[in-house]
From TrEMBL:
Gene3D superfamilies: P-loop containing nucleotide triphosphate hydrolases. This is Aldolase. InterPro entries: P-loop_NTPase (IPR027417).
């Protein structure tokens, strides 16, 4: 049996498997994950991995089933998660690297919503001296492009696909995210957090322009940006509550931008 301890957000996860090949695949799937010394911290979540499940990805539909032993199973064609109600003891079986990535995003989003800690948002996020700035929008709007154009000596990319939000009554903070698509470099490889200073919904345009969004509209427009599979009524209420706190604390904007870094003049002004 092999195991490693990793940080995601403020949480330590203990990852284990009977297969060294599975552990190597985990490292390749999440090359920017932050490791911590084994047994220095009590893990919030223990995850056992096994491969050889199912078939390649078909769609995002996930089935949910309560077992006779009191655990819950979440199954897709390419992975299955079996967990206790608190998402602290977890077994994941997966088909391939994509399945492993999506299963971990599924598990982590489930854990942070159920615990009231925060949300996983489909977005990129860049940090500067003033905090974090999140970029989201419809598919193809330019989330990864905005992040790539932003990188500089004074700005670092902490997410290009999924931003981790810690939502408190008085502040929203963001963390380095190992859930990445195109940009596998990380500005910070130590545990840390940055205050979220702004949220931008992206639109590609000929000229740079930034327009404030009302809180109520922003909440509605962020709903489908939350990574969460097969929510129950209670999960949906929790997500709405966390989004309501977010839009109350963080200003939202429509950001119209062309493919150059000068849109930062609007954000930094």
């Amino acid at each position: 049996m092999e195991s490693i301890d990793i940080f995601i957000g403020e949480h330590v996860l203990r990852i284990s498997s009977a297969s060294s090949a599975v552990m190597s695949l985990f490292s390749r799937t999440f090359p920017t994950v932050i490791r911590c010394s084994s047994f220095d911290f009590e893990p919030a979540i223990a995850v056992h991995l096994d491969e050889g499940y199912g078939s390649p990805f078909v769609d995002y539909n996930v089935g949910k089933q309560q077992t006779d032993t009191g655990t819950v199973r979440y199954a897709r064609t390419d992975y299955i998660i079996e967990t206790d109600e608190d998402c602290k003891q977890v077994a994941i079986k997966f088909h391939d690297e994509l399945a492993l990535k999506h299963a971990f995003m599924h598990l982590y989003s489930l854990y942070i919503v159920r615990s009231g800690w925060g949300l996983l948002i489909h977005s990129s996020c860049v940090t500067d001296n003033c905090g974090g700035h999140m970029f989201t929008g419809r598919s193809g709007a330019g989330k990864s492009t905005a992040a790539a154009l932003s990188e500089s000596e004074s700005r670092g990319i902490i997410a290009d696909e999924a931003t981790i939000l810690r939502i408190r009554p008085d502040e929203v903070t963001v963390f380095h995210s190992p859930f990445r698509s195109e940009i596998q470099t990380a500005a910070h490889l130590e545990p840390g957090q940055w205050r979220l200073s702004s949220i931008h919904l992206l639109h590609q345009a000929e000229q740079h322009r930034r327009v404030p969004i009302a809180r109520s509209e922003g909440l509605i427009r962020l709903m489908d940006k939350v990574f969460f599979w097969n929510p129950s009524t209670d999960d949906t209420k929790a997500i709405i509550g966390l989004l309501r706190q977010t839009v109350h604390l963080v200003p939202l904007y429509d950001l119209y931008f062309r493919k150059d870094p000068y849109f930062w003049e609007l954000i930094s002004s």
